[in-house]
Write a structure and sequence with these properties.
10 helices, 41% helix, single chain, five-stranded parallel β-sheet, alpha/beta
């Protein structure tokens, strides 16, 4: 998978929140094979420099850090948080979230496009958390995004892909744009389904962090993603309305 000129060996991006302990987090990251981890930046930490031990641990893993603007509900909040993240982590990458609805954590797509335009003009390389809406996708690309991260379902819901049709349509409309499913996956088969639709990668957090065995779950997701990608590349059969016998009918014995 290639994003913003960087080639990644793993198609799994892993979040770092809500793990039982730092040690389990590290083991899960290693088991997943992920090369990119997402990190939330708390705004109050920018001045007090709290959380530096955690951030140092993440940097010491030698992985690419994708800071996010989680918890931001306005363009101003998101843009300010992104600038702070660039200063703290020394990266132009930002996972851009502008939340518009509290219960579902659905993106505010109007604010998202506006924030993306502001940050793109300031040199950021943006990974926008968005919906599967084709018009919004086009506006984000026009704003400077070179990756799209549509949700499968509400964050942390573990529901999988609520709208496979919409996601398939998005893939068909933007064949050359890296598309990464962000949020909602609960089990490895959900990730497999996303990859079988032709998506380039998966970003997840809760499904691994809150599993009974996060390390084993991380490894399972890695294998599910690999299986889905291989299945997609193998050009699977299209669904049929009628049966299609695998045994030839010609030459079959006729019993009187």
């Amino acid at each position: 998978m290639r994003v913003y000129g960087i080639e990644l060996g793993s198609r799994l991006l892993l979040g770092t929140a809500r793990y039982p302990s730092p040690a389990i987090l590290i083991e899960a990251i290693q088991a997943s094979g992920a090369e990119v981890v997402t990190v939330s930046l708390r705004r109050e930490s920018g001045g007090q420099r709290d959380g530096q031990a955690f951030w140092s641990m993440i940097r010491d893993l030698g992985l690419r850090v994708l800071p996010n603007t989680a918890g931001c509900h306005s363009v101003k909040e998101a843009v300010t948080t992104a600038h702070m993240a660039r200063e703290v982590f020394g990266t132009k990458w930002i996972k851009l979230e502008v939340i518009g609805e509290a219960d579902t954590l659905q993106p505010d797509v109007f604010g998202l496009v506006e924030a993306a335009r502001v940050l793109s003009e300031d040199g950021f390389e943006i990974f926008p958390y968005t919906t599967e809406d084709l018009v919004v996708a086009e506006r984000l690309l026009e704003a400077g995004c070179r990756v799209l991260m549509p949700w499968g379902a509400p964050i942390g819901s573990a529901r999988g892909l609520n709208n496979p049709y919409g996601l398939r349509t998005l893939r068909a409309h933007f064949p050359d744009i890296p598309l990464i499913i962000d949020a909602s996956l609960g089990v490895p088969s959900h990730a497999t389904a996303a990859m079988e639709l032709g998506y380039d990668g998966v970003l997840l957090n809760t499904a691994v962090a809150e599993a009974g065995d996060p390390v084993r779950m991380a490894a399972a997701f890695a294998r599910g993603i690999e299986a889905g990608r291989m299945g997609y590349l193998a050009q699977p059969l299209e669904p049929r309305d009628m049966a299609s016998p695998s045994t030839p009918v010609l030459g079959r014995a006729s019993l009187a």
